[in-house]
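It is worth pausing here to work through a concrete case rather than discussing structure prediction in the abstract. The textbook approach is simple: state the sequence, then state the predicted structure, then interpret. We follow exactly that order.
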Amino acid sequence: MQGTVATFDLDSHTGTLFLDDGTELAFPADAFHRSGLRLLRLGQRVVIHTDAAGTIEQLSIPGIAPG
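Step two, the predicted structure:
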């Protein structure tokens, strides 16, 4: 699943994504920390990795393997 970064807080490392269907989805700091990224830009495309329950586990950049 992919989405676009709608918000990102540099202090808390949390934010929200817009999915392609327009749904807004919040991601926790743990998912950002697992990504290995230093920051996210508004409008940046990301791949959303979830567990079986649908909880966001990690984010990654399309075309780049998650860390």
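Step three, interpretation. The first strand starts at residue 2 and ends at 8. The two ends are 17 Å apart (CA to CA).
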